[in-house]
Design a protein that fits this description.
The protein is of the alpha+beta class. Helices cover about 35% and strands about 20% of the residues. Strands 12, 13, 14, 15, 16, 17 and 18 form a seven-stranded antiparallel beta sheet that branches. Strands 2-11-10-3-9 form a five-stranded mixed beta sheet. A four-stranded antiparallel beta sheet has the order 5-4-7-8. The longest helix has 24 residues, at about 5-25.
Length: about 650
């Protein structure tokens, strides 16, 4: 390839990689697979070596992407570089140069840097773009396993990875009814959780922190090896990433042993990290513009299977979003047979140049999620449908955050109705049992229902329902009983059931509390009023106000309100703790964990915050004399510290 063409290709690769990085780091979304990104990246590295030219702002030099968020920023003392990588196990033998190394998991989450002074956690910062991170101290303090105080009283900084496990990821996704609102992977969920402006939301998701490097410490801490550092961090109360000491003779065997654990691991990882154990030698190696020389990442050589693309299905949702799904001839990958893979959006479909009959290579991202690695044929014949696969009405392409997505514009689309009503009846919403999506679809087809409010008229259709397949007198009676029970509901559950964009269970509770559980005030809330609610930004506020400004949406809400009785939460019914803000720390004995105590407070109109501030009314701690950071802050701010028993006296007792 002549130089001019190589330069042209390099510029094209710059554009492709930067768009992918922006989506991944800034928008917490994906427009291409990791496999495809790595291939483009390696191609750019090879061209830079061949030409001897590295263009300004090359993705091989600049780490990450520019941060866009409302979180405060802070420059890192030293740049946080990404790691060079290899998929060759034998290459690691030579890389060790006859020395010992520490082999650990390369966790797939969000890198955090924590700072401790005088034994207390004082700051948490994200990796950000490698040079400037976002300050997330309040969120770090509600991680499930981060020590807020440590025995060592000097100043130290520790680096690690914040992650959300697969089981927690599945739990959270399982509570989201609409397909397009579900998180694509644990890493995206973790990124959004860790960077929340409201740490109450962070606290509800079980974020874990795994330490892997002691970045800085005072002179009284002198370590010869990384292994000693890890042992020290463990003694300080940190959960360290699983690691093992290896030599050139044992490294390949240990990689095999760790690989064998992958199917059972509950945490997401995208490889391993090998670091020189001897600190002095590691520090003497320095770094390149892009990589430190003391560590290297090992990435699994993905198991690839070649197959034929048979079909692209288009799956509609309640918001009108229509996602492409690849259907291919079944293949064996990582021990299971797969035949379907999400393509996520139109941008990814177009970047892969997909077409029916194409020969594609499939792999499992992190050995879990089926994805298309490469399209060998690249016919590019697959096009988004002009009509909705469900209703046949016109579709529309929209571009948001540089991602192209397909939508159905028909407000009466049956898919929207099925998904919307399915959301309405979920446990966290109206909690109407016995209504699966399949049953809802049958009811819609039979014209028994046309909208959510018709669920409260099901008693008018007893004869039709009891003769339907799968229904009899008993199942009909159970359904009607569940509908009747749903007629009494809290304002927050009702608001969540409406399916207002961006309004989840927690946000619905916060909004309703802020407007004193008055649904009329909630529906008439202005953008200016909403942005004063903790955790509600301008984007959510504008979408919320716009939703209730639409005559159709308001009319549906009013009709539904004619069937239900809004029951104010127990907390607001003459409760002495209504409107009070509490912080909980330490062990609890009268409740089944802090979450149960939190629920008890919220049910009675109180609020639970993650950290003590001037707005805190009480700190609940059974060890009132504790020297914890929360107790110290409470004393400084004159916030009363009370025990569980004192709290129960204040709240009027607890029914046993």
């Amino acid at each position: 390839m002549e130089n001019a063409k190589m330069m042209e290709r390099m510029r094209e690769l710059h554009r492709i990689l930067k768009e992918a990085a922006k989506a991944y780091y800034q928008d917490s979304s994906e427009i291409m697979s990791n496999y495809e990104y790595d291939a483009f990246y390696d191609e750019l590295v090879a061209l830079e070596k061949e030409t001897g030219i590295v263009l300004a702002d090359s993705p091989t030099v600049k780490v990450g992407y520019e941060i866009v968020s409302e979180l405060p920023k802070e420059a890192h003392a030293t740049p946080m570089l990404s790691l060079d990588k290899t998929k060759d196990r034998e290459a690691l033998v030579a890389w060790l140069q006859g020395r010992a190394g520490v082999l650990s998991w390369k966790l797939d989450g969000l890198t955090n840097v924590l700072t401790y002074n005088n034994g207390e956690l004082v700051k948490g910062v994200t990796r950000g773009n490698g040079e400037i991170g976002e300050i997330i101290t309040n969120n770090v303090k509600v991680y499930k396993n981060v020590p807020l105080t440590i025995p060592y009283k000097g100043s130290l900084t520790v680096r690690g990875e914040a992650i959300i496990t697969y089981s927690e990821f599945e739990r959270i996704n399982g509570e989201i009814a609409e397909a397009e609102a579900k998180y694509k992977n644990p890493r995206n969920l973790c990124s959004g959780t860790v960077r929340q402006l409201n740490n109450e939301i962070t606290a509800q998701r079980k974020v874990l922190f795994y330490a892997y490097t002691l970045v800085t410490a005072e002179e009284d801490l002198q370590f010869t090896t990384r292994s000693e550092q890890m042992e020290f961090l463990t003694k300080q109360g940190f959960t360290c990433v699983e690691h093992v000491l290896v030599t050139p003779e044992t490294v390949v065997e240990q990689i095999g042993k760790m690989e064998a654990k992958l199917p059972e691991n509950d945490f997401p990882s995208d490889g391993l990290v090998l670091t020189f154990d001897e600190i002095a030698f590691a520090n003497s190696l320095g770094r390149t513009a892009k990589f430190p020389r003391d560590s290297i990442a090992f990435k699994w050589a993905d198991e690839i299977a070649e197959t034929e693309l048979l079909e692209i299905e288009w799956s509609a949702s309640r918001t009108g979003l229509i996602n492409p799904v690849a259907v291919f001839a079944p293949v064996e990958l990582e021990g299971t047979t797969v035949s379907r893979a999400s393509i996520h959006n139109v941008s990814i479909m177009e970047s892969l140049a997909l077409g029916i009959g194409d020969t594609v290579q499939m792999y499992k991202a992190n050995m879990i999620i089926p994805q298309i690695a490469v399209n060998l044929t690249k016919s590019g014949t697959a096009k988004p449908p002009h009509s909705c696969p469900v209703c046949g009405e016109q579709t529309s392409l929209k571009i948001e955050n540089d991602v192209k997505s397909l939508y159905c514009v028909n407000a009466e689309c049956p898919a929207k109705k099925v998904k919307s009503i399915a959301h309405f009846v979920t446990r966290d919403a109206m909690n109407i049992e016995g209504l699966s999506e399949a049953t809802i679809e049958k009811f819609l087809n039979e014209k028994i229902i046309t909208k959510a409010a018709d669920l409260f008229r099901l008693a008018d259709h007893k004869e039709t329902i009891t003769t339907m397949e799968g229904f009899g007198e008993k199942s009909y009676a159970n359904l009607i009983a569940s509908v009747e029970a749903a007629k009494t509901v809290t304002p927050a559950r009702f608001l969540y059931a409406l399916g207002v964009p961006n309004i989840g269970v927690s946000t619905a509770k916060v909004i309703c509390r802020s407007f004193e559980e008055d649904m009329e005030r909630v529906m008439n809330a202005t953008v200016e009023e909403l942005v004063t609610v903790e955790g509600i930004g301008a984007v959510i506020a504008e979408a919320f106000a716009e939703y209730f400004a639409m005559e159709k949406n308001r009319a549906e809400a009013v009709e539904l309100l004619s069937f239900v009785t809004l029951e104010r939460p127990a907390a607001t019914l003459e409760s002495s703790i209504a409107g009070k803000t509490f912080v909980i720390t330490g062990k609890v004995f009268r409740f089944d964990g802090r979450s149960a105590l939190k629920a008890f407070i919220e049910e009675r109109g109180g609020k639970v915050a993650g950290s003590v501030s001037a707005k805190t009314d009480y700190l609940i701690n059974n060890d009132a004399t504790s020297q914890s950071s929360k107790n110290k802050t409470a004393r400084e701010l004159n916030v009363p510290v009370i025990t569980e028993e004192e709290f129960l006296q204040l709240a009027g007792g607890k029914e046993e």
